[in-house]
Amino acid sequence: MPRLSRGVCRVSGLNILKGSGTSGRDAKNRFAIPSGMRPFLREAGDGKAFSIALADDKPCAMAFRADHIETMLARVEREAAEALERRLPYDRDMKLTNLFGTLDDVLIDTAGRFSLPASVRDHCEITDGILFIGVVDYIQIWSVDKVLEQPGLSNALKDAARRFIEQRGGAQ
C-alpha cells in the first residue's frame, strides 16, 4: 500500500507538489501513486494518463501532467537564450532530444496504479519499491535502493526509503 507523508498544497493560487511517498510492486507488476499526489497528475488532461521522462543527470524519472510539457520546453528555450547571452555553449537540440526522446505516456487506473515502461525501470534500476518525491510541478520517481546511494538527497528521504525496505522484509 502506498504511504504518503504530504501531497499537494496551494501557494499563490498554484497547486504545488510536496512531500514523498512509497509504493511496492504488486502481483501484476504495477505501482500505485500516493493518493495525495494523484489529483495533481489528473488535474490536466483526461485523468487516465500522465507523462514520464528520464532525468539525464540522475537515476530517476520525472512524472508530470500534460500541461507541464510546455513548461519544460520554455525552460529549455530560456536556458538556450541565457547561454547565448553569456556566450556559453548550450546544445539546445541535444537537450530537447534527451528530454523529449525519453518522454512516454503512462496509463493510470482509478486506484492510481500504473505500469512503468521498461526503459524507466532500467534507467532507475527499479525492482520492487519506488519513492515518489513531489518537486513543485513534477514528481521524481526513484528506486528506493538508489535513494540510499544518491549523494545530496536528504537524510529524511533516505530514511523513508529505509523504512520502506524494512517493512518489505529487508534488502531489495
Notable features of this structure?
single chain; 172 residues; alpha+beta; two-stranded antiparallel ribbon; 11 strands; 26% strand
Summarize the structure.
The protein has 172 residues and is an alpha+beta fold.
Radius of gyration: 16 Å
Widest sheet: strand ordering: 1-4-10-11-7-6-8
Structural class comes to alpha+beta
Taken as a percent bin, the fraction of beta residues is 25-35%
H-E order: EEEEEHEEHHEEHEEHH
Instruction: Estimate the mean pLDDT confidence.
Output: 86
Could you please describe the fold and organization of this structure?
It is a single chain. The protein is of the alpha+beta class and 172 residues long. Helices cover 34% and strands 26% of the residues. The protein has helices at residues 38-42, 68-86, 92-100, 118-124, 144-149, 155-167, and strands spanning 3-4, 8-11, 14-17, 20-24, 31-32, 49-54, 61-64, 104-107, 113-114, 129-134, 139-143. Strands 1-4-10-11-7-6-8 form a seven-stranded antiparallel beta sheet, with helices on both faces. The longest helix is centred in the middle third of the chain and has 19 residues, at 68-86. The protein is globular.
